[in-house]
Amino acid sequence: MTFWFPGLIAAQESSSTPAVLAANPRLVMYNRLPRWTQPFLTWLTAQPAPDDPCRERSPLRYVSAALLQVLTGAALTVAGLHLCIALIPLGMLLTTAGLGLLQVVVFHHCSHGTVFKDRGTNMKVGRLISAILLFKHFDHYKHEHMLHHSNNKLLTEEDEFADFVFNTCRLEAGVALPVLRRRVLQGLASPLFHARFLARRVRAAWWSQDRKHNLIGVVSWGLLTAFALATGQWLGFVLAWVVPVTVLLQAATVGRILCEHSFPDISIITARGRDLTCHATSGVFPGVMPPSSPAKSAPGALAWLGWWTNMLTVQVFVRVVILVGDAPCHDYHHRKPASRRWTSYIQARHNDKEAGSKTFQTDYSEIWGLFRAVDATLASLSRLPPGTPF
Which of 342, 365, 344, 341 is nearest to 353 (CA)? Predict the structure, then answer.
């Protein structure tokens, strides 16, 4: 989709025939690339190779990975101020990636009670994350998120996704697609948008009825700020913590949430049937179709060089910073929200799809590429009648 990223992505898409585009890019990668590349491609695309075994993972692995990324990223950022400035953007992105895991995986699945074995620990960890990382008070989030999983509430004014689209991003139904695209891009670049977004977060996190929760958040940020000023490390504090928690995490959140769901035909929305979630949710997988030409020729070698460059830059960035954890398989989560198999989401979704997703009439659908997925959401919103109530 050339509007969002006119270089490598457009080159790959325009060189493919409709018949090739209809195929599964992951299967094509499996057939055209060496076996030693397959584990990496499985992680990157969030789709398994045909012979991939199901690897069971502990939820604590995601908790530890998130904390490790945040701490390592902060350390790299601070080191970059004294050793090599090139470490700063790398450290900031790594911190943002870890914060995304805490938000998308740990905080989210704690609300479903599927990270830790007992309900109390899920609640305590969720509340701590919401207080420190400026997320909505965990108890309120948990209640609203359960509504989000209801077909009677999805895509209504009580739905957290619809609230984000219409109130945070200020998008509207029935508006031309180019206008919606422009609003998203302008928002991402606007200090006013990020200030408004941050203000909503602070109010939701620290202006709750739980005074203890509010105090934990305010005191933790106060202590970090005081320590940074006392030690003269205020610039490191801003770059290593404040910017990733605010602007960078917010930008990543916009990209992720705007591809989590789309708006199906108004008749499907108003019917509120069991399959609404299937029509409103697709899998979103990083990656593009590999070139069809062999690498032995000069044009083929250039095509493969462009493909690998795209996969190792654009797609890795999307996977690490935006579509973190099980975010690519969000459709599986909506079909089985209480499943503890989310830790092995790649194989779990694949197996459920291969089995025909028996509890739903509508099969899984998928979109390859974050930018295509966001554009699909905006296009679906544009097709709705102007002023459609939600």
Answer: 365
According to the model, what pLDDT value does residue 338 have?
A: 87
**Residue ranges of the chain whose pLDDT lies below 50:** 1-21
Q: Quick: pLDDT tens for 205-251.
A: 999 999 999 999 999 999 999 999 999 999 999 999 999 999 999 99
Concatenating the DSSP letter of every residue in 75-128 gives HHHHHHHHS-TTHHHHHHHHHHHHHHHIIIIIIHHHHTT-SSSSHHHHHHHHHH
Give every CB contact of residue 35 below 8 A, 6+ residues apart in sequence: none
- What is the number of other CB atoms lying within 10 angstroms of the CB of residue 348? 20
Residues 56, 102: Cα–Cα separation, whole Å: 20
328 vs 369: CA distance, rounded Å: 10
At residue 267, the 3 state secondary structure works out as helix
Answer whether residue 389 is part of any domain: no
Which pTM was predicted? 0.90
Span 258-311, pLDDT tens digits: 999 999 999 999 999 888 999 999 999 999 999 988 777 888 899 999 999 999
**What residues form DSSP beta bridges with 285?**
368
Q: What residues make up the domain containing 355?
A: 8-382
**Domains identified in the chain, total number:** 1
> At a CB cut-off of 8 Å and minimum separation 6, what does 286 contact?
44, 45, 46, 315, 316, 318, 319, 323, 328, 368, 369, 370
Indicate whether 3 belongs to any domain.
no
Question: In the chain, how long is the greatest CA-to-CA distance?
Answer: 67
390 belongs to a structural domain: no
The whole-number pLDDT of residue 7 equals: 35
Distance CA 162, CA 262 (A): 10
Is residue 165 in a domain? Answer: yes
Strand segments (E) across 208-312: 283-285
